Amino acid sequence: MSELAKTNELMVNRNYWVQGLPGQLAMGLCGIIAILVALKAAAYSPSETPFLLHQDHFFRVLSFAALTVWTTFAVGIRRRGPAAVITLGFAIFVEMILVPLRDEQMSTLVAANFGIVLAYCGMQLYWLNLVKQRLQR
C-alpha cells in the first residue's frame, strides 16, 4: 500500500484550473453558486404556465448535473465517482428533507439523480478523451 502512495500516478495535477489563491477563490465561489442553483431548483415553483412540460424536473436535472461537474473538477477528474456520490448525498438531503417541508412530490429525487448520472457519464467520456490524448503523445 505504501508503494502505491509513492507513485506519481496518484499525484493530482490540475492544469485545467487556476492555481494559487485566485484558484481557491474561484473554486469556492463556483461551489457556492452551484449549491445555490441546486437549492433554488429544489425550491422552484412556477408562478405562470410552464414553458415546458415538467419544467421543474428539467431545472433539477440541469442544476444537479452542473453541481456534479463542479464537484468533479473540485476534487479531481480521477475521483469522478466519489464526486458523484457526494452530490448524490447532497441531492438526497435536499430532496428528502427540504422538499417535503414544502409539500412537494418525492419524484423530484429521480430528476436530481438523473442529472447526476448524466454528468457522471459526461465526466467519464471527458476522462476517456484525456487518456486518449495522453496516449497519442
Short overview:
The protein has 137 residues and is mainly α.
Layout of helices and strands, plus pairs?
Elements: H1 2-6, H2 20-42, H3 55-75, H4 80-98, H5 108-136
Helix pairs in contact: 2-3, 3-4, 3-5, 4-5
Distance between the termini: 30 Å
Number of strands: 0
Largest sheet at a glance? none
Helix content: over 70%
Class based on secondary structure composition and strand pairing: mainly alpha
* Gross geometry: globular
Order of helices and strands: HHHHH
Percentage beta strand: under 5%
The rounded Rg comes to 18 Å
Q: What's the mean pLDDT score?
A: 76
Count of helical segments? 5
Unreliable residue runs: 1-10
Provide an overview of this structure.
By secondary structure, the chain is mainly α. It is built from five helices and no strands. Helix 2 runs antiparallel to helix 3, helix 3 (55-75) crosses helix 4 and helix 4 packs antiparallel against helix 5. Residues 1-10 have low confidence and may be disordered.
List keywords for this structure.
mainly alpha, 71% helix, 0% strand, globular
